[in-house]
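Please predict the structure of the following assembly.
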Amino acid sequence: MAKIELSNISHTYNPNDTNPTYALNPFSMTWENGKRYAILGPSGCGKTTMLNIVSGLVRPSKGNILFDEKDVTDLITEERNIAQVFQFPVIYNTMTVYDNLAFPLRCRNFTNQKIEERVKSVSDTLRLSSFLNSPARKLTADQKQLISLGRGLVREDVAGVLMDEPLTVIDPDLKFRLRRNLKEINEQYKTTLVYVTHDQNEAMTFADNIIVMDQGEIVQVGLPKDLFEKPRTTFVGYFIGSPAMNLFNSEILSDNSIKFNNGTIKIKTDLSKIKDKNVKLGIRSEFIKIATDQKENIVNVKVTRVEDFGNFKLITGKAGDLEIKSKVEREIPISTEELKLHLPAEKCCIYSNEMLVN
Amino acid sequence: MEKLYKFLKYTFIILWTVFIVAPFLWAISTSFKDFQSVNSKVTYIPWLDFEPTLEGWRVLVKSPARGGVDIVEPYFNSLFVTCTASLISIVLGTLAAYALSRFTFKAGFVRNNDITFFFISQRIMPPIVLSIPFFIFLSTIGLLDSLIGLVVVYIVLLMPIAVWIMVDFFNRVPKELDETALIDGCNPYQAFYKVVLPNSIPGLIVAGMFCIIFGWIDFFFAFILTFTEVQLLPVKVVALNSSITPWWSLSASALISVAPLIIVAFIVERYLSKGNLSGALK
């Protein structure tokens, strides 16, 4: 258990080229002891590189890593006491489940009594107790992944457990339970957990803090609520939420209003400091409702599609050239031709140069 | 359709079995014949067609002084040379293969693949090309006509096989396995022998099997690099032939030459068909 600091880290896989391409652009970040973090981003954005740098499998081209203020940049993996779980289960085929779980402790010369105690506790948590004596290779894929997880959790003094999309191979029902398990483990042992995923629901339900990455860049760090309501860039708005945030090209009309189609939308953001007139308006489809008695921020749309998702309906409509999506409760009767939608001013986010205007 | 397929399948299997087994049956029956029953007329079944005799087998263990050919010593020579050379080749070849699979080497224009190819290229050359250099080399270091000299030469011949098979095998062992071992607290050496090596038993078995086969059956180098002090089995078996071909003892010696390989094949087959030696992932 440790506070993990990444200071000015950057990494390139081709450092000798004259024009190296960076898998990770320079950044600094601190992971507090005992918290749960999720790193969220599309494939190839540098998530795994970041984990490998923390665990020591990759040495960063620049920057330092500190565990509890101690510089570990030059320490090799085995000296860092960190756990990492990969996307696909990696087990020691030739050993039993018990030996698999005991392996990290045996490598570090724990006493047999201590090993037994820890393996028992972890296997109880992961419900592997009844398999302890079977050969690990005989287990199913998700049980194997539990072993991988278990090997990460078996060391109490571990600086942090890094998980690289660990639940990909596990079926949805078990996934849900395991995420809750991981949360319990985190609360019980105060282990720092870092969880890489490209699934936003997983990230949202698991983490205290979400780190959103794109193309080697950390674009936003925040609570699930912030990411949802105030995405810092259009990428975050687009990447998080299902469906993606509605984004419209627009123009500034005054300090607190912008053009939308042929009408005007009033907003709460102060636009007086923005020089470029061209901005983007972003609003979650969850916040767009069918207008009842509102006077302002009303948009007339032509309904093009209504999809029933069971727990909600998704309306897709057109206002001029702009396509707009709105999530409404499924009980509400919907006209299939024309609708008046209300865009609440306090939920409108304005992006200038793809960055949120505060 | 189903029946036709089954019929064809079994017909093929039966024909193939006959093709494989017939020479063995022929050799077994011939080894118990004497001059008369080989040369006079066609005979098949012991006691009915001909009177079986153990003479063909007895000659093999009798010393030359008593009119025998004594293949016992060459037999153990062959066992020693094959096993020692295979073992050393596997140990060195596995280490080399692991390095070639996991680390990136650069020396001028030479890369990992070039090094692997260099190993394999040793086997591309026809043996005759290597015979003179080997001869001069062994005579220079005074190991001509000795078991150690043969072991050295056989290591050169067998290690490429071990490297080739093991590089391919290690490339298919996910590097996450090594990384997991490092994360769990092994140093790189422990990661290799505690985790990667036990996982590579199928590869080791296959590589070992090929080394043993190629070592055991080599005639060329055993013939060129030995004279009187040391003889290996293949050379001795060929030397059995004389103006009157002794079919009976040739058959007997052929059978006991093949025996170790058959035993190896049965052991290996049991391991490989279990299917529990497949990779570590999934």
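Chain A has two domains: 4-234, 243-356. The two ends of chain A are 36 Å apart (CA to CA).
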